[in-house]
Amino acid sequence: MSQLFTPYTIKDVTFRNRIGMSPMCQYSAIDSAMNDWHQVHLGSRAMGGAALIIAEATAVRADGRITPGCTGLWNDDQIEPAAKINRFIVDQGAVPAVQIGHAGRKASAARPWDGGAHLKDNDGGWPIVGPSGTAFDTDGIRLWKTPTQMSIADIAQMQNAFVDTAKRALAAGYKMLEIHGAHGYLLHSFFTPLVNTREDEYGGDLRNRARMMLETVDAVRAVRPENLPLAVRLSVSDWTEGGITIEDNIQMTKWLKERGVDIVDCSGGGATPDARASIGSRTASQVALAGQLRTEANIATMAVGEITDAKQAEEIISSGQADIVLLARTMMRDPYWAMHAAIELGVDVKAHIPTQYGFYIK
Ligand SMILES: Cc1cc2nc3c(=O)[nH]c(=O)nc-3n(C[C@H](O)[C@H](O)[C@H](O)COP(=O)(O)O)c2cc1C
Question: Residue 274: what pLDDT?
Answer without folding.
Answer: 83
